[in-house]
């Protein structure tokens, strides 16, 4: 019987990070300023390894290269998705990401479209999401003259909010917010503004004004969201977004939730509660494997697993590759 791939997260120290990945999720952290948990990643800057089964100890990029059948023989040189949990104790830099064409040409890697599910948010916490410039010339002028209040669009957020952040969107996560981020597997970030913070070397952190102006979508347009919820008894599936890169869902389990493979494979993160993942063997009657899962568990359901059940009381965020991934 095919097994899920449980993954060990990789932690990234950040100037704006805190300790909530320990206090909220219970992870043992290597430093006290951890901003990112790369929960499901095959990116070379932080590659997860498998914790169970016949592939135990292997890295996700190795599985992509050598066992593509696990991923439905998907095309592509790199595993296309990356799941993170971000803890913003302080404001992140104001930034923007390129699309695939620009990223591959200038950085040698994919562009970065992403989306955010807000796990926690302090009262009054806000994000920067978009800008007010009408032309690229106005965008450059507002950046160069530091008119941030006139340029940046601020939105207050709360637990449970969801945002789609296409490449070309100026954005920043504000202090006091923890999110789960589903994104293309890219680590290319162009900083527009960083509050004049200094890095470990005592110098202001690098900005990327030319690249930012070149890749930013002008004028900003909010992507339309068509959020759909399907109830299954007292449990539910909420479809947040479908893009060429990824489809993202929330699975709210209160009792039992039965699901089937909708894409080539599925990435799953438990963000609240605990319960069981039950895999049925399609070739053997009444043959199942049960796995205990809880808050902070991350796994991939490979292509060969076509149906599963979740039991207990928990909240999970799941994603699958889109048509262009």
Automatic annotation (TrEMBL):
<comment type="similarity">
    <text>Belongs to the mannose-6-phosphate isomerase type 1 family.</text>
</comment>
<feature type="binding site">
    <location>
        <position position="97"/>
    </location>
    <ligand>
        <name>Zn(2+)</name>
    </ligand>
</feature>
<dbReference type="GO" id="GO:0005975">
    <property type="term" value="P:carbohydrate metabolic process"/>
</dbReference>
<dbReference type="GO" id="GO:0004476">
    <property type="term" value="F:mannose-6-phosphate isomerase activity"/>
</dbReference>
<protein>
    <recommendedName>
        <fullName>Mannose-6-phosphate isomerase</fullName>
        <ecNumber>5.3.1.8</ecNumber>
    </recommendedName>
</protein>
<dbReference type="Pfam" id="PF20511">
    <property type="entry name" value="PMI_typeI_cat"/>
</dbReference>
<feature type="domain" description="Mannose-6-phosphate isomerase cupin">
    <location>
        <begin position="237"/>
        <end position="320"/>
    </location>
</feature>
<dbReference type="InterPro" id="IPR011051">
    <property type="entry name" value="RmlC_Cupin_sf"/>
</dbReference>
<dbReference type="InterPro" id="IPR049071">
    <property type="entry name" value="MPI_cupin_dom"/>
</dbReference>
<keyword id="KW-0862">Zinc</keyword>
<dbReference type="InterPro" id="IPR014628">
    <property type="entry name" value="Man6P_isomerase_Firm_short"/>
</dbReference>
<feature type="domain" description="Phosphomannose isomerase type I catalytic">
    <location>
        <begin position="6"/>
        <end position="106"/>
    </location>
</feature>
<dbReference type="InterPro" id="IPR046457">
    <property type="entry name" value="PMI_typeI_cat"/>
</dbReference>
<keyword id="KW-0413">Isomerase</keyword>
<feature type="binding site">
    <location>
        <position position="171"/>
    </location>
    <ligand>
        <name>Zn(2+)</name>
    </ligand>
</feature>
<dbReference type="InterPro" id="IPR051804">
    <property type="entry name" value="Carb_Metab_Reg_Kinase/Isom"/>
</dbReference>
<dbReference type="InterPro" id="IPR014710">
    <property type="entry name" value="RmlC-like_jellyroll"/>
</dbReference>
<feature type="active site">
    <location>
        <position position="191"/>
    </location>
</feature>
<feature type="binding site">
    <location>
        <position position="114"/>
    </location>
    <ligand>
        <name>Zn(2+)</name>
    </ligand>
</feature>
<dbReference type="GO" id="GO:0008270">
    <property type="term" value="F:zinc ion binding"/>
</dbReference>
<keyword id="KW-0479">Metal-binding</keyword>
<dbReference type="InterPro" id="IPR001250">
    <property type="entry name" value="Man6P_Isoase-1"/>
</dbReference>
<dbReference type="Pfam" id="PF21621">
    <property type="entry name" value="MPI_cupin_dom"/>
</dbReference>
